[in-house]
Write a structure and sequence with these properties.
Blueprint lengths: L1 E3 L4 E5 L5 E6 L2 E2 L28 E9 L5 E6 L4 E5 L9 H6 L7 E3 L3 E3 L1 H8 L8 E6 L21
Parallel strand pairs: 1-10, 4-8, 7-9
Antiparallel strand pairs: 1-2, 2-3, 5-6, 5-10, 6-7
Length: 160
């Protein structure tokens, strides 16, 4: 899996590097590539707006469940960053509309997690089949997408 933070999209590849799918996503509201130290142990209400970043780096992604029992893919468990379905709990946030919009300008809204359509999350998490662990790379906004992988990938036209 590769997260293109600049274009707010996730790409999933098979073990040979062939693209399995891609989707627009919502990412952290604050620009930045690092999580605040200790943020994963704090209540969400105590996370300040400037701390709501989606971290960049190479992570061991692992399917799991959050505190609500929902399927997630943990990206950085210590920082409580996961890929999970879009939750449209607060109508004023317009999360589903943001996800469907043709621009990336409005895709920064989360506390740092990567929000995606539930169907795509099911493909990423491996559920209901046996969960599998995979590498997840969250690209820095300044890094070209093609440079985010250590091996050749089959990219959609115009994306690499």
């Amino acid at each position: 899996m590769i997260l293109d933070k600049k274009n707010t999209r996730v790409f999933v590849f098979d073990p040979s590097g062939k693209l399995r799918g891609a989707t627009p996503v919502l990412v952290g509201a604050a620009k930045g590539d690092d999580s605040v130290t200790g943020i994963g142990g704090r209540p969400i209400a105590e996370v300040a707006p400037h701390e709501r970043t989606t971290p960049a780096g190479r992570f061991m992604a692992e399917p799991g469940r959050n505190t609500l029992g929902e399927d997630v893919v943990w990206v950085d468990y210590e920082a409580a960053v996961s890929m999970h379905r879009v939750r449209a709990l607060e109508p004023a946030e317009r999360r589903l509309e943001r996800l469907a919009s043709p621009t990336t300008d409005d895709n920064r809204i989360s506390y740092g997690c990567i929000n995606m359509p539930v169907e795509f999350l099911r493909m990423c998490s491996g559920r209901p089949s046996t969960p599998a662990t995979a590498w997840s790379t969250c690209c820095r906004r300044s890094r070209p997408l093609a440079k985010c992988s250590r091996r050749p990938m089959t990219w959609p036209p115009g994306m690499a």
